[in-house]
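Slide 14.
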Amino acid sequence: MTFEDTEGFRHRDLERSLEYRNRFHANISDISRLKHVDSIDGDGSLLNDSDLPWLSKLRRLENLDLSRTSVTDRGIRQIGDLALRFLSLNSVGVTDAGLANLNLEKLEELCLANTPISDHGVRRLSNAPFLRKLQISGELINDQSLAYVQEFDRLLHPQS
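Slide 15: predicted structure.
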């Protein structure tokens, strides 16, 4: 079941999954009332750091795609307590400092393509006990970063 409301959110699976498709900035505070939401696809939306405190109220949130948004380290601090299983931060301004604020306890898949993450940030990911899929690329990824990834024996598909 899929329907779209006037705020530009697409609701699926009895409102457990949201796609934020607005290209204008809607009132995102409304979704913090939907306590049962476990998945948000905000890829390419106008979501930014000031929106993330609202998302942090969604305690059941497990899957979050913030790719191609204006999210930075400041915003990641706001969602650091969420026990996410999937997180996509492709082409955002999150650095090693932002990664340090993430709860890695349940994280299974992380996408960091075209982000300013260095070997220091990649090394920290070794603390993610359930990380199975990792996608990394960017100007700061170097041979040392890739060496750290090779040490993650639990990864199913190391990608760089």
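Speaker note: The two ends are 36 Å apart (CA to CA).
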